[in-house]
Amino acid sequence: MANEFPDATVTGIDMSPVFPTTIIPANCRFLQHNILEPLPFPDNSFDYVHQRLLVAGLKPRDWVCVVQELERVLKPGGWVELVEVDGHGGNNGPMTQQLWDWIELTLKGRGINVNIGTQPGLANLMEQAGLVNIKQEVFNLPTGLYGGKIGTLLKENEQAFWIAMTPTVIHGTGIDVQEYENAIITSAAEVEIHKSYHTFYSACGQKRTCPSPLMPEPEPDFGEKSPVSPIPAPLSPRPTFVRSNIK
Question: For residue range 205-229, what is the model confidence (pLDDT) as tens digits?
Fold first, then answer.
């Protein structure tokens, strides 16, 4: 994005230090930060905020606070985009479906709604945050080599997600670790046979250019806050973008 928009300042945020260390454009910076903490930026800092694939990490109450915080750092007239994926996939083989059932059971036990992205979930969150002109889009993406570059990347991401979730799923379901690992291996072949896919949900909302007297902005409640050192806003008047959960 930084290369595509050289006149913009792009900030990438993730809880884990998964940022590139080489070939970083001069107009790009990265910040390790927990999205459940207040963002270390002043009000009205960014023209565009993009957040994606946090469905497995946020509880319903967290979502409300997070979207309100995204709205806070957005400039009047700027846009927030949220992108999430379904919690089960489509055209699944038996082992692939079993994996998603284990995932859903585990996350529900942790108070997480795996269907937060389905309509009108994201739009409702934006409305609660005071955003307007909300637009939604639903689209399917292939999971597997049969889907070309996109399908290959999504398959790799899905496999990596299941592997990363191993200790959490084992603890949450009590299944045998070997059974879980064998299911992951079997699924790698199943997605090609059944031509599996995922449904993605995208929602965009715009910040009001002036406060609405009928809709006062709610104060985000993050509970006990950790001390955060503010990062000064860029001095340049050029557009600024922020992306949360870089992959």
Answer: 999 997 655 555 455 454 544 333 3
For residue 88, count other CB atoms closer than 10 A to its CB. 17
156-196: pLDDT as tens digits:
999 999 999 999 999 999 999 999 999 999 999 999 999 99
- Amino acid symbol at 110: R
Q: What span, in angstroms and rounded, lies between the C-alpha atoms of 19 and 246?
A: 8
Query: Binning pLDDT at 50, 70 and 90, where does residue 230 land?
Result: very low
Question: For residues 190 and 59, what is the distance between their CA atoms, to the nearest angstrom?
Answer: 31
Distance CA 76, CA 42 (A): 13
**Domains of the chain, first to last:** 9-223+236-244 (3.40.50)
Residue 140 — very low, low, confident or very high, per pLDDT cuts 50/70/90? very high
**DSSP string covering 141-187:** EE-SGGGHHHHHHHHHHHHHHHHHTHHHHHHHH---HHHHHHHHHHH
Give me the long-range contacts of 117-122 (CB less than 8 A, separation at least 24): 117/55, 117/82, 117/83, 117/84, 117/85, 117/86, 117/200, 117/201, 118/86, 118/201, 119/201, 121/84, 121/201, 122/82, 122/84, 122/201, 122/202, 122/203
